[in-house]
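User: two proteins, same treatment. go.

Assistant:
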Amino acid sequence: MAEKVFNVLFICTGNSARSILAEAILNREGRGRFRAFSAGSHPKGRVHAYALDLLKRMNRPVESLRSKSWDEFAQAGAPALDFAFTVCDNAAGEVCPVWPGQPMTAHWGLPDPAAAGGSEAVKRAAFADTYRLLSNRISIFVSLPLASLDKLSLQRRLDEIGRARNAAA
C-alpha cells in the first residue's frame, strides 16, 4: 500500500517570495511524502526575481513556480489540503476561504524579504535568511512522526515550529 502524500499550502499576501520559497523547499525536502503549493490573498502576479535567483542557486526547480490566488485552492477539483501555513502576518489575520480537506493550520510568520531596504547585497541576504529559516522549519515539519501524533499533539507541534525564531531545535 502506498504511503499517503500530504498536500501543504503556504499562504502569504503577495505570493511572490516567502510562500514561493517554502513551496520549493518542501517539494524537495518532502521526499515524495509531501506535495507543496503556495498562494496569496492578493497575489502580485509574479515571483520576485531575488527569490527565483536564490532558488536556482540552491538547485531548486523554478519552472512551475508562479504567483497565484488562494481562490484556486478553494475551488472544486482543487487538491484536498492536509496543512495550510501562513508565512506572513497579514495573511494570518485575513479570513481564509474554506479549503477542501479541512487542513490543519498554523502561523509560521517571517519578515518579508522583499521589503528589505539597502544595497543589493543586503536585500539578497534578507532572502537568504528567509530561505534558511523556512528550510529549518520545514526540516522539523517533515521529521514529525505524523502517523503517531494525535491531532492535538500535532497542532501543538505545528504551532511550536512557527514560534521558533531560528527553528533549529
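Protein 2:
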Amino acid sequence: MKLTLMILMALSTACVALWVAMLLKSGQEESLAAAYARLFGNTLKIDEHRLKDARNAAALELYSGVAHTVMKLFIGGNHEKAIARLERENEALRNGALAKAGILTLPGHALRRSIPWIGEGPLYKTLQIRHIELYGKKNAEYMTHGVLAAVCSYGLIGFGAALALGVLLTALETGIIGYAILGVGPLLAAAAAYSIYDGIRAKTARRREAIARQFPNVVSKLALLVCSGMIMDRAWNLTAVSNTGEIYAEMKKTADELNQNIAPEAAYGNFIVRCNTKETSKLASAILQNLSKGNAEIGDLLRQLAYEAWQDRRHTAKRDAEKANSQLMGPIMLLFLSIMIMIMVPIGIMLGGSAGF
C-alpha cells in the first residue's frame, strides 16, 4: 500500500511540477494569447447579457402595475453591473494590463506551444472547426487557443492536486474519505477539464439544430420573394433582417460581405462553413450555381428545397415526439406506483385493524 501511495504521490508531484515549470516558462506570447482569449470571451458574455436583457425587457412590456413588479422578480433584473465590470476589464486588457487575463491558463498556453501534438493535433483541429462555426475564422484561433489552454492547465493542476490530497488523507488514515478522494478526485478533475471541451461540442450541436429548425422558414421566404420577381441579393437581404436567430445572423454576415464587394463564391462559401449543415450547404450551392442563369431556374430550385425542408421538419418533429413519449414512460410509471402506494397503504392499515393485528 505504501508503495502505491508513493507512486501516486510521485505522479502528483510530476503533474504539479510540470504545471509550475510551464508557468515559469510562460512569456509575452503566452500572456498575449491569454489576453486575446479573455478579451473575446468577455465580449461574448457582454453580447449574451445584452441579448438576455433585451428579451427580458420585451417580456416585461406585456405587464404593468403590480403584475410588472411580480414578473420582474421572476424574470430577473438587468446585467448592467456585470456588463460594466466586463467592459472595464476589456479596457484594461486593451491598454496592456495583461495580468487581467489571469495566470491559471498560462501553463496551458506554454504547454500548447511546447508540445506540437497538443497545439496542432486532432483536438486542436476539432476545436478550431467548431469555433469557426460559432465565431467565424477571424476569432476562431483566439478561442481555440484559450479553450485548449484551459483544458490542459485546469486538467493538469486539478489532477495533480486531487491525487496529492487523496494520498495525504489516505496516509493520515482518515478512513474511507481518503480512499474516496483518491479514487474520485482525479476522475472529477479529468471530467471538469473534459467539460470545457464538451461544452463547445454541445454549443455547436445546439446551434446546428437551431439552424435546421429555422431553415424551412428561410428558404420559403427566399422562394416566395424570388418567384415574385425580386433579384436574389435583395431577397437575401430582406430575409436576413426579417427575423432573429442563428441562421438569420449568418445571412446578415453574408449580406455585409456581399455589400463590401467580396466575391459571391467567398461570401457564400463562408456561409457554408459557419452554418455547417447539409440544408444551408444545398441552399448556398444552388445560389452559386445559378448566379448567371437568372431567377427562373433558381426559383424552381428554391421551391424544391422548401418542400424538402418542410418534409424533413415533419419527420424530425415526429421523431422528437416519439422520443419524448418514450422519455415520459419513466415518470408515468413512477406516478402510477406512487398512486398505487397511496391507495394500498390505507387499505392495508384498515384491513390490519379490522383483523385485530
